């Protein structure tokens, strides 16, 4: 009988959905139907409230999939807290981001190693209009970058550091990535002494002894940085290689 009432309400729609939901809400063991009917009636807040009170995890999971940054912040925060308490950290972080609790969301990411993918990072990146204090926005971007570094997502860390205006740490992230092409490109684009030196130092860890183009790139970066002590050390290393090769080739 109870199932028939739910089915009839679903077919009828409108006020019948709400009346049926109220009916099921007062029947022990039937609150799942009440949650479903409130949800179908568009009463998201009422459905979530009942689901919270009766610990209906699957219903909460379904309903919160429809939440976004335009949803009621109070609902978002309450849902985030529920999922956090139930060790569903990915969901909690997403909801905290929607509710503009950026710092709390990033902290949870770092504590629980929630994957910082591109979609989440963008949700956690507020526009300049949302955070008027530029220093706070910069700090937020750097925290996202730190989280990416922690998860060895170095390319995305570099992107966030760059958005924060921290080109030095962006280069350090690229160095950790081992992506030579991006390291060279970024150094040329940044045009900063410290970054030229970082790039040249990293290139020296590669097999430059057998790559003339790499040798020229290292020399070029040190020259652009006016880092003549570094350049002298590099020339000394080159000389040692040439001496060794000459001695090896000339041995009868």
Walk me through this protein's architecture.
This protein has 252 residues and is mostly helical. 74% of the residues lie in helices and 0% in strands. Helix 15 (212-224) runs antiparallel to helix 16 (228-250). The protein is elongated, with a radius of gyration of 29 Å.
Number of helices: 16
Q: C-alpha Rg, in Å? A: 29 Å
Taking the alpha carbons of the first and last residues, their distance comes to 102 Å
Sheet-strand content, in percent, reads under 5%
**Overall pLDDT metric:** 84
Give the low-confidence spans. none
Query: What structural class should be given to the helix and strand makeup?
Result: mainly alpha
Largest sheet, in brief, is: none
Q: Helix content range of the residues, please?
A: over 70%
Number of strands: 0
Taken in chain order, the helices and strands follow as: HHHHHHHHHHHHHHHH
Give the overall silhouette. elongated
Question: What topology does this entry show?
Answer:
Elements: H1 2-12, H2 15-25, H3 31-40, H4 44-53, H5 57-64, H6 73-85, H7 89-98, H8 102-112, H9 118-123, H10 134-150, H11 154-163, H12 167-177, H13 180-190, H14 193-203, H15 212-224, H16 228-250
Helix pairs in contact: 1-2, 2-3, 3-4, 4-5, 6-7, 7-8, 8-10, 10-11, 11-12, 12-13, 12-14, 13-14, 14-15, 15-16
């Amino acid at each position: 009988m109870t199932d028939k009432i739910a089915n009839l309400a679903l077919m009828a729609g409108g006020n019948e959905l709400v009346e049926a939901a109220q009916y099921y809400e007062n029947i022990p063991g039937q609150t799942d139907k009440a949650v479903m009917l409130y949800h179908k009636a568009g009463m998201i807040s009422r459905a979530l409230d009942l689901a919270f009170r009766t610990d209906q995890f699957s219903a909460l999971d379904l309903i919160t999939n429809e939440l976004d940054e335009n949803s009621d912040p109070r609902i978002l925060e309450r849902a985030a807290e529920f999922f956090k308490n139930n060790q569903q950290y990915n969901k909690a972080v997403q909801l905290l981001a929607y509710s503009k609790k950026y710092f709390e969301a990033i902290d949870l990411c770092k504590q629980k190693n929630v994957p910082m993918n591109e979609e989440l990072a963008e949700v956690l990146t507020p526009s300049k209009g949302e955070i008027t204090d530029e220093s706070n926005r910069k700090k937020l971007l750097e925290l996202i970058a730190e989280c990416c570094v922690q998860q060895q997502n170095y390319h995305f860390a570099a992107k966030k550091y760059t958005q924060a205006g921290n080109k030095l740490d962006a280069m350090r992230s690229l160095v950790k990535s081992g992506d030579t092409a991006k390291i060279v490109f970024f150094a040329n684009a940044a045009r900063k002494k410290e970054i030229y030196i970082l790039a040249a130092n990293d290139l020296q860890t590669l097999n430059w002894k057998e790559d003339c183009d790499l040798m020229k790139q290292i020399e070029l970066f040190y020259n652009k940085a006016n880092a003549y002590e570094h350049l002298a050390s590099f020339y000394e290393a080159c000389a040692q290689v040439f001496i060794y090769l000459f001695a090896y080739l000339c041995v009868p």
